[in-house]
Give the backbone structure.
Amino acid sequence: MSIEIRVPQLPESVADATLMAWRKQPGEAVSRDENLADLETDKVVLDVPAPVNGVLREIKVPAGQSVKAGDLLAVIDEGATATAAATTASPSPAANGKAPAAAAATKTGPAARRVIEENHLAAGSITASAPGGHVTKQDAEAAARAGAAPLQALSPAPAPAPATPSIPPQRGARTDQRVPMTRLRARIAERLLQAQATQALLTTFNEVDLGAVQELRARYKEAFEKKHGVKLGFMSFFVKAVTEALKRFPVVNASVEDNDIVYHEYFDIGVAVSTERGLMVPILRDADTLSFASIEQQIGEFAVRARSGSIKLEELTGGTFSITNGGTFGSLLSTPIVNAPQSAILGMHKIQDRPMAVKGVVVVRPMMYVALTYDHRIIDGREAVQFLVAAKECLEDPGRLLLGI
């Protein structure tokens, strides 16, 4: 019996998707609920699961083509079994040196594949860190730095060429590579340009002494991890501090709609996560009600699912305020861009030991520059500065977070 595979219902507000890659080829056996293909939308990657056991008979849409909900993608012969001919139709990895790279392409994104190709790496020699055996860009870069096996190492060594006269080295070809933006990258570009074109963005800066936070983490990190099964990071402190500051200055948590200011009486905090496909901002709903452990657990889960492409669209929509941490990449200072229609975003940066004057004495303290970019149409400089000072006070004296002062 022939079963048609169609594009599943797309998330609300998503009109179409791009078929990124097929996970199965015609003639291969498929199992019920096994992922057949990846569909990329503006924010998330969707799976196309097989509804039955059988054999993939025909693919109707090639990779790279745009599709809409209900479009016919492929046909499965229910209950059929793969024939020996179909099994051997594809060359084995040992047949030529390109097969391993092709196989790896099904478990790597565009950014990771580019690193693999540029460094001539054998995909099979790279340790995957993401769920499902997916190789991330960071995995590929780490393999390149560690000197992973080159692609040529998977093929038999060619016979030595006969000696030839010495020829002066020639300058390599100066080539350009044109790669289309992913849907996510194009959407990010659109939203950033929109924010800069429609908002009056201004950034104010301050610096935070994180000595007290570091001391608390050092004192309780083992007990915290043992009890909650997650590490105590810096982000939970910043989420708590930001939430407290937003309560004091509600306009920073507001947004503009036409000629109205909408004051949100809840605190949905977006936390930026870097992935090989681009930046995603999952939302911590009702952050003011979450414990430190819940914040750390949710952020960890968001990061894993965002990088593996399994995060849900509803987890990326909404949000009243955002936090981004450029310090994880070594940034000392930056001016983040507001995630519209929000009106403000906090930028965290690298913690650096610096000499500071404390009560007339110069001491070395772990300092971090923080930046608040805000929409000056509704947030005055006074409110922006005071908001940042309030967050700074909570971080430098974490006891305030417990006492609400």
Observations:
- The mean pLDDT is 83.
